[in-house]
Amino acid sequence: MKKSSLLGHAAEALSHIRGGHRPADSILADFFRERRYLGARDRREIAGMVFGTLRHMRLLDLLVHAATAGFGTSSPPAGPPMTPLLVAAYVLHVEHDDTAETSAGLTEYFSTCLSGEMPTGFLDALKSARLPEETLDSPVSRIAALHSFPDCLIREWMMRMGPEDTEALAVSLNQQAPLSLRVNTLKSTVDHCRQVLAAAGVQTERGRCSPFALILPKRLALDTLQAYRDGLFEMQDEGSQLLSLLVQPQPGTTVVDACAGGGGKTLHLAALMENRGRLVAIDLDDRKLRNLQQRAERAGARVHMILSAHRDEARIARLCDKAHAVLVDAPCSALGTVRRNPSLKMAYTEERSTQLSTIQTTLLDSAARLVMPGGRLVYSTCTLVQKENEEVASRFLDRNPGFVLQPAYEILSRWGIVVDRSSPYLQLYPHRSGTDGFFAAVFLREEGGR
User: Fold this and answer.
1) Among 172, 222, 247, 312, which is disulfide-ready with 307 (CB 3.0 to 4.6 Å)?
2) Active site residue 209
């Protein structure tokens, strides 16, 4: 497919994503299903431009407006919509693709794929655009603009880790996440699963953190493999796998996944429990719970009860003081997963984070009622802001003197996993661990405590 056509498809797909309310990968998958004529290589190139533009949206917006100012107008050209200009800016300034073929493709793209006429010379202005000087005046605004993050996030991270680490984190969050698997030990071992995948032509590497993780050097459609259909593995970031280890689910005990969602961690808990005991999955989203049931059947995982928080309040109440361990993987701003869903970072607001913090606090207090004396409560998120992490954990301890904090590194060291020991919390950063970003706090309920 010609470059101009690829650019046009990318701009069209990006317009759908910017105007939609679903994750970008889901919208793009629908976009491709409706255009069966696109080959695998075309889809890869289009997806690369779409996600690349999303990752660098703030930078590209600044460059388009800088080109406009250099062209001598007060706003982008009236003819074409903004989205195609952002895609063009991505190709020129992030991919640094200024070959003769690409220049010709961009020229044709402007003339045939956009409604209205592009003023002569605007493409040259876009090529030579630079960030406004005021965005480079301070470390916060410079890092935020160059890597397309809200200033408030960069400011918080700089206060916690300094400018060098903050920029390294921002860079890592703009990279494509590795494809990681969790071997399902109910049906396989790590070595056996590697052998089965290798026989199917899929090479893997052992994970850096989780003893159950395999990493794929290149991306492919894993759900088409027989090993996946047979339930030998699940797609799960290896950082996420550590959260289930913190729960320390023992065979024969009662374990509750209080925010089960799609069930990735629930299935891991079942494997760690060796399908012995009582495993309960709870969530507000009935649709996700139905998906969990299907995944559990494929994985051969025994989930004793799957409960809707809306419809099964009485059954949940009967679990009070009965659980040996409870996991609260709370809904959050998900900034640790920006590598997979780049639109999350520019959707972040401090107001929304405050709202989520209130929800998280309520969920954690509610789940604490289920923990028996001597039991364990694990609070986790996949975000990177203190308001939803340390502050929620601290408030919980203030209100619940019957619980004490257990250092996460103590638990993980039993698995031979080395993490930062300077904090009792687990905090994973992509630029340090290679995983998605995660936070976790482990609380123990003292005997007789509440």
Assistant:
1) 312
2) no
